[in-house]
Write a structure and sequence with these properties.
CATH architecture of one domain: 3-Layer(aba) Sandwich
CATH topology of one domain: Cytidine Deaminase, domain 2
CATH superfamily of one domain: Cytidine Deaminase, domain 2
Oligomer: single chain
Structural class: alpha/beta
Radius of gyration: 49 Å
Length: 496
């Protein structure tokens, strides 16, 4: 597989960005509970520009397709066929403009912006055209300064005909820009959005999505329309209220206090555990780095000193041999000069011309022999120089090898050190997240406890008022009963 050289730019028109943002925020925003966040997916419509194999992409419009957890599932054959049909419809509608589906977009609400293994698999469908692009949104990035909440990606390999090979591919970010609005149409869309917010209508509809105009109308069930004769039992009501209040206090305050104590203890224990683990990890990293660096220094110093010492010995030996060779040559030359001088003197002093010619022949032979000896000595000197040059190069190669090994070991140590540091950072981030969650739950419990005080107080006051009313009612009933008894007694006495 070969790496691609991607210098292209993705330009997103205002309308396309507006529609993608509405789709993403409809199912994922900071105003939606985390458990209710949903991923969205849609198709990019646009055109290509440029002469390179990887061309610039201009995204003119988008088609919101779906939302939900099924987006993180590899596209099936039926789904890919549906995308093919959608591509045909796009070409029928925008073909005169030269527009077609140039990629896809989807969201990772609150999870970060990246290409998962599933995203890489799905990207293969659009990157059969080498310029096909994938856009990933995360609404939490919109809180960052000058961040549009998305990144554009492509797979980094050219061989995408084999999915198994393509899944081994990395991916890279593509430069992307959003054009500012320049015409009235964009601001008309803003007016439509405000109208949809006021009327409670969906701000944007997905492919084949319809709106239920009467879904919010409440129609009661038949049993809810039946009339019943009211029956009241004051003693049962009072007893039920007392039991309800006791059960409410027992079931809320006591478990809540136990839960708060448990949470507090868990937070303290986890903080202690993580702090101890981080301390041990840091100490282990420090000790290991110190030990390994000391061993490395000792090893390199020892080996380097031995190599340099051996090299010095060898150079000294060769230089000494060279000096000896020079002395030998010098001695031979001096001896030759002295011999030639003596022979010439004798030649011209005691010998006739014939003997001079004979002696001259001997001198020529001696000169030839001397030249041969000098030539051999020069060859020996050349060999010695070559050997010295060879060992100098060996010394340089040894020095380069030592430097290379030292750099490799330093890189390995730095890599292991960074891994340990990243692990520690991960533990710290996990601890911070858990602490935040505990604090959030603790605040929620406190708010719930505070909010339950007033209703309980109001119910107690209501019970006291009802109790006084009941006492008054009982007193009135006793008075009426006594009056009735007096009347009955009078009637009986009169009858007698």
């Amino acid at each position: 597989m070969g790496k691609i050289n991607d210098q292209s730019i993705v330009t997103i028109k205002p309308l396309a960005y507006y529609k993608m943002l509405l789709h993403v925020l409809r199912f994922g925003s900071k105003y939606i509970e985390h458990s209710k966040l949903s991923e969205v997916m849609g198709v990019l419509i646009g055109r290509l520009e440029g002469e390179n194999e990887i061309k610039n992409v201009i995204v003119e419009d988008v088609v919101p397709v779906s939302h939900g957890g099924t987006i993180e599932v590899k596209f099936s054959v039926d789904q890919l066929g549906a995308f093919g049909e959608l591509d045909t419809k796009i070409w029928e509608q925008y073909g005169d403009l030269g527009w077609f589906s140039v990629g896809w977009y989807h969201s990772h609400p609150g999870l970060g912006i990246f290409f998962s293994e599933t995203d890489k698999y799905n990207q293969i469908f659009w990157q059969k055209n080498p310029s096909g692009v994938g856009i990933v949104f995360d609404h939490t990035y919109l809180d960052k300064p000058n961040d549009f909440g998305f990144r554009a990606f492509r797979l980094s390999e050219t061989r995408l005909d084999d999915p198994s090979l393509a899944l081994k591919s990395g991916y890279h970010e593509v430069k992307a820009i959003v054009e500012p609005p320049t015409d009235l149409e964009f601001y008309l869309k803003i007016m439509d959005l405000i109208s949809a917010v006021h009327t409670g209508s969906p701000q944007i509809l997905e492919l084949n999505e319809t709106v239920d105009l009467f879904g919010d109308i409440f129609i009661p069930e038949e049993e809810q329309l039946e009339s019943k004769l009211p029956e009241m039992n004051f003693e049962e009501i009072i007893s039920t209220l007392k039991k309800g209040m006791d059960n409410l206090v027992e079931s809320t305050v006591k478990p809540m206090a136990h839960l708060l104590n448990t949470w507090g203890q868990d937070v303290v224990n986890k903080i202690k555990t993580h702090n101890s683990e981080m301390r041990n990890n840091l100490k282990e990293i420090r000790d290991k780095l110190s030990s390994e660096i000391i061993n490395l220094q000792q090893s390199f110093n020892y080996d380097l000193q031995n190599d340099l010492k051996d090299l010095d010995f060898y150079v000294d030996d060769r230089l000494e041999d060279l000096d000896n060779e020079k002395e030998n040559i010098k001695e031979i030359v001096n001896n030759s000069k002295e011999g030639y001088k003596n022979q010439i003197d004798l030649l011209f002093k005691d010998n006739p011309i014939s003997q001079i010619i004979e002696k001259n022949t001997n001198i020529s032979n001696s000169i030839t022999e001397f030249n041969n000896i000098a030539s051999n000595n020069l060859k020996n000197l050349e060999k010695t120089g070559n050997a010295l040059k060879k060992y100098t190069e060996s010394y340089k190669s040894i020095d380069n090898l030592i430097q290379s090994n030292l750099n490799t070991l330093q890189e390995d140590f730095l890599t292991n050190f960074n891994k340990k540091i990243n692990k520690i950072k991960g533990n710290i981030n996990t601890l911070n997240k858990e602490t935040k969650n505990y604090l959030s739950d603790l605040k929620a419990a406190i708010i719930l406890l505070e909010s339950s005080k007033n209703p309980i107080k109001i119910k107690l006051e209501t019970l006291q008022t009802d109790h006084k009313d009941l006492q008054k009612t009982v007193k009135d009933l006793k008075s009426q009963n006594q009056e009735l008894l007096d009347k009955i007694k009078k009637l009986e006495e009169g009858g007698v």
